[in-house]
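Hello support,

Our group uses your service weekly, and this is the first time we've seen a run hang past the timeout. The protein is Enoyl-CoA hydratase. I'm not sure whether the cause is the sequence or the server load. Input pasted verbatim:
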Amino acid sequence: MNEPVLVHRDGAVQLLSLNNPAARNALTPEVYTALPAALEQAQRDPDVGAIVLTGVGGAFCAGGDLKRLAQRRAMTPPERRAGIEGLHDMIRAIRDCSKPVIAAVEGAAAGAGLSIALACDMLVAARNASFSVAYIKVGLSPDGGATAFLSGFVSRQLLTELCLTGRPVTGERMQTLGVVNRLVEPGRALTEAIAMAQSVAAGPERAAARIKSLCRHAGENTLEAQLDLEAQYMAESLGDDEAAEGIDAFFDKRPADFPALRRARAVPSQ
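Update from on-call engineer: The timeout came from a worker crash unrelated to the input. Re-ran successfully.
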C-alpha cells in the first residue's frame, strides 16, 4: 500500500505530499492520521523552519472519496460524525501547527481539498488551478471548515453562491479575492511555494509562531482582546534570544542567524 502522505526535506523546508494520484488525492481515513503525524514530526524537528503541503500527480486534492462516503449511509449518525471529526482534527492540526504551512495548489482543490488548502497559512496556486465547494453536486453540505475559511474572504452572498452552485473558481479569480498569495504559471506552484517557505524558514521560529497565532485570532477578536494578545506576545518576544540576535544583527549590519538558535535549543544541556 502506498504511503498516504509522502515526506521529503528540501533544506529547512518539510514537503508533505498527499499521495493518492489515481483518485486525484481524494481523502481517506489514513490521511486523517498520517498528515497530523507528519505535521507533529515537523514541529519537533529543529532543522525544519516551514512546511509545504501539496498533492502528487498534478492535482492538489479532490476532497472526500465518494465510494467511502456512500458507505456511511449505512452507519448510525454518531458513526458518521466520528468520521467527519477525523477530517476536522486534521484541519485543526494544520491550523494549530506552530510552524508556517504553505499550500502549493495545482489542478483541483475541491470540497475538503479546498478546506485543506485554506487551512494553510499561505497559498500558492497555478493560474489554472480549480477551487470548488463541490458538495452540492452530490447532495451534501460543506465540512472541513470550508464555509468558515471562505467567509473571511468573500461576502455572504458570494459564499452562498459558491456553496449552492459548486461552481469552480480559477486560481486567478481566487487571487483577486485575496485567497491566493502567489499566482504562478501551471507547473510552478510547488517551486514557488518552496521558495516562499525557504524564506520564511530563515526567520525566527518562536516569533513566527506568535505571529501565526495573532493572525489566526485577529478576525475573531475584539480590538481590546487583540491588543491584549499583542501585548502578551510582544513582552515574550522582547525577552527572547531571537530578539537579542535580531537586534544585535541589525546594529552589527549583518544577517541574523535565527536557524542557529533553533539548532542550539535542540542540543540537550549537559
